[in-house]
């Protein structure tokens, strides 16, 4: 198979030889456009002007030429631009839909939505799932972190932007490329009010993910306004074929269109006018519009990704616009810092509001990078700017378009507070580290490592080093470099076992979805490989979705493991099967084990919902495991969970158990489920297929999940939370038990309590006070002994570990800083030591 790049090149050549076949040239000709070839980049383009020699790409035609000189008929604000687009396209028969979250929960391969078409990949584009409307338009917020260092400086780079999507998904006979082209052309004419002689269209090609097709980009006065892509073909091993569903994928930056219509000096002033104004006021920075007008056409020369020597470029730009380089830098650099703060805040607002958290891994890393970049600019210039207030202003301005940003603002604000504290703590810590390091030369690699492993911003390194009289060079594209370290696509962790040859076998019919109590079935043996058995249908649940497999018997032989390979379920017997392929066999599930697993699984959904109710709407599942012994749920949370919060979650969870809430299990069309319940159903990650199973605890929680679940919440019996541990930045693990296991746990505790009260010879209620009293004595004794004998520290040190739940036992455990399960041992040891102290000192 060829790479996307190769395919694009080959197809572009092919299409340029037969433009009438691949582009809507009849429309262009009707409108009076003629086809020409750019003298610089050799691209074919369409224009009204027979004299035009270049394609109007800024690189070929000398940059932007619309600043304070736009050919657009009427200036539109950011919000108005979408409204106008939306009303025009509604008239043209398109349905506007709501944006999808920026966190791409429905996709296993990416963290962030990077284009409007992501909303519909993979299942709508493949034709497996119907689109939510057809044709449709969407104002999709997208996040891209590959250009961080250019934000602010070039006047047009963003980490978040709204891609206006125009999409249609049609079989070949209904696909109407001419109409789609006419529609977008009517936006240029009627929406922006451009005359045809102000528009240039480019012939181009697009390829991605094995699909490809022609595309048409449209420009005016050096600015690319958008690109209409036609996904028509897919690659095959030796050639290519037409897609069954042809896809229109037009993407157009809302920021660019609004900017173009108003012709302000930077696009930021159009995108967030109220925030820009606020920041000018706080910082005292005044925008020099005559300088900006001269500077901006050249700002792209300062694109750090494309420029070899950035200092030379500054010199070049300064000479071009005839201004002293220092004066230019003095005016532009602080301004670009201000724009970066505003822009990064907006991205954070979108991401945090949609349930993402800054962290040091995965997609969360990108958020921490821009957050710290913004904070370090505030530090550098000592501006009195609060990111929370900036975000609040963004939310207010965007309310007509995205009201959800205001609704979720409380959570966003809390997360920003915690992150700022972390940043400040890092700053303190870094001083000491840098003090040591600065004796040697700090390399680029070291800077990256400091940021990556300890969160130390290179700006801080530079500042601290300077205080010590040393200079540190920070690469100009530093933030893009660190982002790249982590933004690699997320990998799906598959529960993979053996790789058996299952050729010719169809999907195993699963019998465990409807009724978790179904424990008997008969089936036909399709295949036997060693101890592995494949049946035509089964009630055995295979390990998946974090839930352990069932055990039981097939024809009285023990089933010790069950797993899934592709869509085939494989039973592992403890010995060679005594039956053969083609036989009918009886299966029976170990129902006790099944019940315990179902209790743990349903309890996981309950705790997830209760954590969200207690801690905030940002709580999402990051992982889960349900075994017979216990279960855990990993949730996204920006700090540790306190004992009080944990108690609240447990109480709420047990109330839900008591309330006997019915649990509905249904297969639904993916599209209907998303429409009805939203994208938060993908708590367990992306699930494949046209139909998905929905587990709904009425009024509490809805998830796409394939596990075995109870019929109502009371069947959980009891939920006991064991502990909460922060397992990584931004993720807290809650361990718990349910059902029979919870009862055992509670009994065990009671036993422990009885035993301790016996050792201490007091009532259970008096244990904490008694322990505290003894503990104080013991500490005093230890101190005295240590002084006297200088005994090794290790000998006396008690293991300090995570805190435990708040009852008498917890308090005891807390006082003794010990694991609850070691409590009896610790109390005994502690009493013994106290005795021996007494003997030594009395
Ligand atoms: Zn060109
Ligand atoms: Zn589940």
Q: Approximately how much helix is present in the residues?
A: 40-55%
Give the end-to-end Cα distance, rounded to a whole number of Å. Answer: 86 Å
**Widest beta sheet: strand line-up:** 1-2-6-7-8-9-5-4-3
Q: What fraction of the residues are assigned to beta strands by DSSP?
A: 15-25%
* Number of helical regions: 27
**What small molecules does the structure contain?**
zinc ion
Q: Report the biggest beta sheet as strand number plus sense, adding barrel if it closes.
A: 9 strands, mixed
Short characterization:
By secondary structure, the chain is α+β, with helices and mostly antiparallel strands. Helices cover 42% and strands 20% of the residues.
Q: Can you lay out the helices and strands and say which pair or pack?
A:
Layout: H1 4-17, H2 19-22, H3 25-30, E1 34-37, E2 44-47, H4 58-61, H5 78-91, E3 95-96, E4 136-143, E5 160-170, H6 177-191, E6 200-208, E7 211-220, E8 223-235, E9 240-253, H7 254-262, H8 267-271, H9 273-283, H10 289-299, H11 310-320, H12 325-353, H13 362-381, H14 387-398, H15 404-407, H16 409-437, H17 444-454, H18 458-467, H19 478-486, E10 509-510, E11 520-529, E12 532-535, E13 537-538, E14 552-554, E15 557-565, E16 568-573, E17 584-589, H20 591-615, E18 621-626, E19 631-636, H21 643-658, E20 663-669, H22 670-677, E21 691-697, E22 701-704, E23 719-728, E24 731-738, H23 739-760, H24 767-789, H25 793-796, H26 808-816, H27 823-841
Parallel strand pairs: 3-4, 10-13
Antiparallel strand pairs: 1-2, 2-6, 4-5, 5-9, 6-7, 7-8, 8-9, 11-12, 11-17, 12-16, 14-15, 14-17, 15-16, 18-19, 19-24, 20-21, 21-22, 23-24
Bound molecules: zinc ion (ZN) (2 copies).
The site of one zinc ion has 8 residues, from loops.
């Amino acid at each position: 198979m060829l790479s996307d790049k190769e395919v694009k090149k080959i197809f572009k050549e092919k299409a340029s030889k037969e433009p009438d076949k691949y582009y809507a040239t009849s429309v262009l000709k009707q409108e009076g456009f003629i086809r020409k070839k750019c003298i610089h980049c050799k691209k074919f383009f369409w224009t009204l002007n027979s004299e035009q020699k270049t394609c109007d790409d800024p690189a070929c035609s000398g940059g932007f030429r619309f600043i304070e000189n736009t050919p657009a008929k009427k200036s539109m604000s950011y919000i108005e631009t979408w409204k106008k687009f939306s009303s025009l396209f509604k008239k043209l028969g398109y349905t506007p839909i709501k944006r999808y979250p920026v966190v791409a929960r429905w996709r296993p391969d990416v963290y962030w939505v990077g284009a409007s078409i992501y909303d519909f990949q993979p299942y709508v584009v493949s034709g497996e799932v119907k689109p939510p409307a057809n044709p449709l338009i969407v104002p999709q917020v997208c996040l891209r972190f590959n250009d961080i260092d250019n934000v602010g400086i070039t006047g047009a780079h963003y980490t978040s932007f709204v891609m206006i999507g125009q999409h249609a998904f049609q079989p070949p006979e209904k696909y109407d490329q001419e109409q789609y082209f006419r529609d977008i052309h009517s936006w240029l004419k009627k929406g922006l009010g451009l005359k045809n002689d102000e528009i240039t269209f480019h012939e181009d090609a697009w390829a991605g993910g094995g699909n490809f097709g022609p595309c048409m980009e449209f420009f005016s006065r050096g600015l690319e306004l958008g690109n209409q892509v036609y996904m028509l073909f897919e690659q095959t091993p030796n050639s290519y074929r037409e897609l069954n569903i042809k896809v229109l994928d037009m993407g157009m930056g809302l920021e660019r269109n609004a900017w173009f219509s108003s012709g302000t000096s930077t696009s930021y002033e159009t995108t967030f006018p109220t925030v820009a104004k606020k920041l000018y006021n706080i910082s005292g920075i005044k925008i020099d519009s005559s300088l900006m007008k001269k500077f901006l056409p050249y700002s792209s020369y300062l694109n750090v990704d494309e420029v070899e020597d950035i200092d030379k470029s500054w010199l070049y730009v300064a000479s071009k616009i005839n201004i002293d380089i220092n004066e230019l830098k003095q005016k532009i650099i602080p301004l670009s810092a201000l724009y970066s703060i505003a822009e990064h805040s907006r991205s954070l607002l979108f991401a945090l509001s949609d349930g993402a958290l800054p962290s040091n891994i995965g997609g969360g890393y990108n958020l921490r990078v821009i957050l710290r970049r913004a904070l370090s600019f505030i530090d550098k210039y000592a501006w009195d700017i609060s990111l929370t207030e900036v975000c609040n202003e963004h939310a207010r301005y965007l309310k007509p378009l995205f009201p959800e940003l205001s609704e979720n603002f409380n959570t966003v604000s809390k997360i920003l507070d915690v992150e700022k504290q972390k940043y400040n703590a890092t700053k303190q810590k870094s001083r000491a580290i840098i003090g040591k390091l600065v004796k040697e030369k700090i390399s680029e690699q070291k800077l990256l490592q400091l940021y990556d492993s300890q969160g130390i911003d290179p700006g801080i390194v530079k500042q601290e080093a300077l205080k010590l009289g040393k200079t540190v060079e920070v690469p100009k594209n530093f933030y893009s470099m660190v982002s790249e370290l982590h933004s690699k696509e997320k990998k799906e962790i598959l529960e993979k076992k053996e790789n058996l040859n299952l050729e010719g076998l169809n999907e195993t019919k699963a019998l465990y979805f409807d009724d978790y109590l179904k424990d008997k079935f008969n089936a036909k043996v399709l295949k036997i490989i060693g101890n592995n058995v494949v049946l035509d249908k089964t009630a055995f649940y295979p390990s998946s979705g974090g839930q352990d497999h069932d055990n039981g018997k097939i024809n009285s032989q023990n089933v010790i493991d069950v797993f899934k390979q592709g869509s085939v379920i494989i039973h592992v017997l403890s010995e060679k099967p005594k039956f053969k392929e083609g036989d009918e066999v009886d299966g029976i599930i170990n129902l006790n084990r099944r019940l315990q697993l179902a209790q743990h699984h349903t309890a996981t959904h309950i705790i997830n919902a209760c954590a969200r109710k207690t801690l905030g709407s940002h709580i999402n599942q990051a992982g889960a495991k349900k075994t017979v012994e216990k279960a855990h749920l990993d949730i996204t949370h920006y700090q540790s969970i306190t004992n009080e919060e944990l108690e609240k979650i447990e109480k709420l969870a047990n109330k839900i158990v008591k309330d006997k809430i019915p649990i509905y299990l249904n297969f639904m069309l993916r599209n209907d489920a998303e429409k009805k319940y939203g994208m938060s159903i993908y708590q367990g990650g992306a699930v494949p297929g046209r139909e998905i199973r929905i587990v709904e605890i009425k009024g509490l929680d809805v998830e796409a999940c394939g596990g075995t679940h109870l019929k109502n919440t009371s069947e959980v019996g009891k939920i006991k939370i064991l502990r909460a541990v922060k397992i990584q930045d931004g993720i807290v693990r809650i361990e718990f038990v349910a059902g029979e296991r919870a009862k055992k746990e509670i009994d065990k505790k009671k036993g422990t309590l009885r035993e301790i009260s016996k050792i201490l010879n007091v009532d259970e209620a008096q244990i904490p006070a008694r322990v505290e009293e003894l503990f104080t004595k013991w500490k005093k004794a230890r101190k005295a002994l240590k002084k006297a004998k200088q005994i090794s520290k290790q000998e006396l040190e008690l293991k300090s570990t995570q805190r435990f739940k708040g009852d008498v036992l917890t308090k005891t455990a807390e006082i003794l800083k010990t694991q609850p399960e070691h409590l009896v041992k610790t109390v005994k040891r502690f009493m013994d030591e106290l005795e021996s102290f007494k003997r030594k000192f009395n």
